[in-house]
C-alpha cells in the first residue's frame, strides 16, 4: 500500500491552541498530526500520513496573508508532500480565505495537489474554486466525520488522475468549468422535455443555472462635503449596554439602529461588542475602535462635512448568510437615504 | 465606503470603495498607542474615508495610503 505524504494546514481553533484570544498567533509547524489530522489518517486506513501540520491564528493569517503564504510555501517545498490538505473551514470566513489562498498557491506555484472543504458562501471558495476541488460542507463542524471521507475520496481521484464526475455526483462546489459530454437525447429534445415539465408544474433540473449577479455599480461621489450629512455604521456588533435588541452573536437575524445624538464618544461600559467572531476585548475597552464616533465628532467640529447623522446602523457579520447581509445592507441604505444621508462610512471586523 | 482589515474579502463580495483598516478586532483602533495618538490615527483613517467618498470611481477601488 502506497503511503501518501500529507501536509495539513489548520487554524488555531482546530489546532487546539485556543479560540479568538489566540487568533493572533503566527504560523508554526509540527511534524505530527493534530486533531482532525488523526481523523484523516484513520479514515484513509493510515494510507495518508500527516508529515507536517501547520497551524496559524485566523487573524494573523488574514492580516498577513502574503507573509503566511511565503512561509507555508517554504515549509511545503522542504517537505515535498504528495498532497496538501487545508481545513475543512466550514463557514469560517478568515479561515476559508487562508485555506483557499494557500491551496491555490501550492497548486499553481509548487504543482502539488491540494484539497479543502468549505460552505459554499465562504469567501475562500471564490479564491480557489477554479484551481481545485473544494468539498461542499454545511456551516458547522458537527459534520466533520462525513466531510473527511469525501475529501479523501476526491483527493485519491486527483492523485490517481482518475476521471472526476460533476459537482453533485462527487460532492464538490461547482467550479464554473464546462466540459463536453455526450447525452442520449439531443439538445432540442431535452429543452422541450424541460418545457413540458415546467408547464405541468413538475420538477426539472436546468442544464444552465443562471448566474447570480450581485455586483452593485459604484455610487456617485459626494459632490460637496461641506453640505453633506455623513453616517457611520458597522457589522462589528457595537451595541448599547446589554444588547437591548438581542442581535445574535452568530448569523444575525436582524440589523438595528441606535441614536448617537449628543454623544461625543462611545464610553466603555455604555457600549459593548455583540459580535461572536472576533476578540471583543479591545473594542469593549474602547468601542470607538470599531465604531469611530469620537474621531467623527472631531471632524464634524472641524467642518470636514456638514453634520454627522444622529443614528448609526449596526448588525453582526459573523457567519451571516449572504442573502440576509444583502437585505440588511439594502434596508440600511434605504433608511439612511430617506433621512438625507449622502455618505456612509462602514467598518468591518 | 468600507474600512476593513481584509480588503481582499471586501473586494470578493463586491464592496466598491475600500480602505485597509488596522486589524480585525479594531479596524479603526490602535490599542498599543497613547489615547491621543490613537484618536489621531482614527481621525486620519476617517479623513481618508471621506476622501474616498468624494472620489468618482467606475469600478471597485481599494484606496491606498
Report the β-strand fraction of chain B as a percent range. Answer: 5-15%
Number of helices of chain A: 11
Helix proportion of residues of chain A, in percent? Answer: 25-40%
Number of E strands of chain A? 13
CA radius of gyration of chain A: 24 Å
Overall pLDDT level of chain A: 94
Instruction: Strand order, main sheet of chain A: write it out.
Output: 2-3-1-4-5-6
List the domain count of chain B as a whole number.
1
Biggest β-sheet strands, sense, barrel of chain A: 6 strands, mixed
| Percent helix of chain B | 25-40%
Biggest β-sheet of chain B: count, sense, barrel? 3 strands, parallel
Contiguous helical run count of chain B? 2
In order across it, which strands form the biggest sheet of chain B? 1-2-3
In CATH terms, the superfamily of the largest domain in chain A is: Response regulator
Question: Which class of secondary structure composition applies to the elements of chain A?
Answer: alpha/beta
Please state the overall shape of chain B, judged from the principal axes of the Cα atoms: flat
- Count of folded domains of chain A: 2
Description:
Chain B: Its EC number is 1.21.4.2. Chain B: This is Glycine reductase complex component B subunit gamma. Chain B: Keywords: Oxidoreductase. Chain B: It comes from bioreactor metagenome. Chain B: One of its GO terms (molecular function) is glycine reductase activity. The complex is a heterodimer of chains A (349) and B (65). Chain A is of the alpha/beta class and 349 residues long. Chain A folds into two domains: 4-170, 3-Layer(aba) Sandwich (Rossmann fold), CATH 3.40.50; 225-347, no CATH class. Chain A has helices at residues 36-43, 58-63, 65-79, 93-110, 123-128, 144-159, 167-170, 187-199, 281-285, 293-301, 322-338, and strands at residues 4-11, 28-30, 48-56, 83-90, 114-118, 133-136, 229-234, 238-240, 256-259, 271-273, 307-308, 311-314, 343-348. In chain A, the strands form four sheets. Chain A has a six-stranded mixed sheet with strand order 2-3-1-4-5-6, with helices on both faces. In chain A, strands 11-7-13 form a three-stranded parallel sheet, covered by helices on one side. A two-stranded antiparallel ribbon of chain A has the order 8-10. In chain A, helix 5 (123-128) links the parallel strand 5 (114-118) and strand 6 (133-136). Chain B has one domain (2-62). Chain B starts with a strand and ends with a strand. Chain B has a three-stranded parallel sheet. Chain B is flat. With 65 residues, chain B is an alpha/beta fold. At the A-B interface, helix 2, helix 4, helix 5, helix 9 and helix 10 of A face strand 1, helix 1 and helix 2 of B.
